[in-house]
Amino acid sequence: MRNLISPGKIILSGILLLGLLFAGILIIAMDSRVWIPPGSELNRSQEATSEVQIPPDAVSGPTQVIPKVIPTPDMPRTLPPLRTEVEQYSVQPNDSLHTIARNYTVSVEVLLAANDISQPDFLEVGQELTIPAPQPQGMAPDFKVIPDSELVYSPGSIDFQLAEFVHQQGGYLSSYSEEVNERQKSGVKIVQRVAEEFSVNPRLLLAVLEYQSGWVRSPDPEEESLDFPIGVAVEWRKGLYNQLAWAADNLNRGYYLWRVNGVPIWILSEGTIISIDPSINAATAGIQHYFSQLYDGEEWERAVNAEGLFATYNDLFGYPFHQSFDPILPDDIPQPALRLPFEDGQAWSFTGRALMVVGAADQPGLRLILPRLAMPWVVSLMMPGSWQLRMG
């Protein structure tokens, strides 16, 4: 005689199956902003190996637990050794305390104290300075903020629609404009221009701008941020373009110094010296250096950890390492041949002999000295004032 399953058990089993299915859909929906299925086109990094907590005050909404995707691992860097001896330096033309301090990896404050300088803006050529050995006061975090492909303007950004994203956020940036090189530019075009000029990822520029001033999402940011949205309150750096250009330049400086093993420490904004953890990636180094120019102590520590720029980026674009594009430059990429713009079969030479003077009839005071090139070509050079110089 066969055992029959009662109708009640069938119904109960069906309810349980539906419940499990609904729970799975709910979990995916709740985490869809940062979760990408394994094997998807966007998930180019290694599989998740651990978790990272984002505090509730770092992003909108409750505390989130998201998978920590590790970027292509960097071997720990062999950093340049720190000086251990006091040195003497003779001031050269065009020197400043800032450049001397940077070259010797000490702070300006250390130089002022060691040399009893009361006027830091005035140095005399030939003045002898004592350069103390740097004294680190702690270790920088090993927390990796973003992958390298999210600092540089990499192929990972090819599908990012900057204008559409900015206007969807509805913040101050979406309606902002300013004059750049005598032309009115929208906020979106300024971000795009800085991204292209400095080869810095536009997503990172937006995250930095949002972290510093709230311009991306807030329609009414703090008044003090309107002239200096990145926080560099120097008159000649007023305006979005100048502020973002400064930010991009410092992000690049940290990134490329790290790539060439060129820096062992960060000097924070108030002179604190921090040793760099050798296991971080170049993009994290760029971000740590950038914030070292703005903050010190706990404020810097917060900016470069999970509750800082990382949380802002995650809130805007999702988990940063899901955007990873590795490697940025494959080892087998073909290198194009270097070719100068000279015609084949023609011998070119540059000489300072047989000079001629070229001027303009309506500007007799202007003269340009050019070498005479024995070529049948016509060479045209556009000069200010909408007139041309021609040789040939």
Query: What is the string of SSEs from the N terminus onward?
Result: HEEEHHEHHEEHHHEEHHHEEEE
Termini separation (Å)?
A: 109 Å
Major sheet: 2 strands, antiparallel
- Count of individual helical segments: 11
Low-confidence parts lasting 5 or more residues at pLDDT below 50? Answer: 25-53, 55-66, 353-361, 365-370, 378-392
Helix % is 25-40%
Q: How do the strands of the widest beta sheet line up side by side?
A: 1-2
Rg to the nearest angstrom?
28 Å
Mean pLDDT: 78
Looking at how many chains there are and whether they match, the oligomeric state comes to single chain
Indicate the overall shape.
globular
Share of residues in strands: 15-25%
β-strand number: 12
Structural class: alpha+beta
Kindly list the characteristics that best describe this protein.
392 residues; alpha+beta; globular; Membrane-bound Lytic Murein Transglycosylase D, Chain A; two-stranded antiparallel ribbon
Describe the structure.
This protein is α+β, with helices and mostly antiparallel strands. Among the domains are: about 85-130, LysM domain (Membrane-bound Lytic Murein Transglycosylase D, Chain A, Roll); about 150-325, no CATH class; about 355-390, no CATH class. The protein is about 30% helix and about 15% strand. It has helices spanning about 5-30, 95-105, 110-115, 160-170, 170-175, 185-200, 200-215, 240-260, 280-290, 295-305, 310-315, and strands spanning about 50-55, 65-70, 85-90, 130, 175-180, 185, 265, 275, 355-360, 365-370, 380-385, 385-390. The strands form six sheets. The protein has a two-stranded antiparallel ribbon. The chain is globular and about 55 Å long. The termini are far apart.
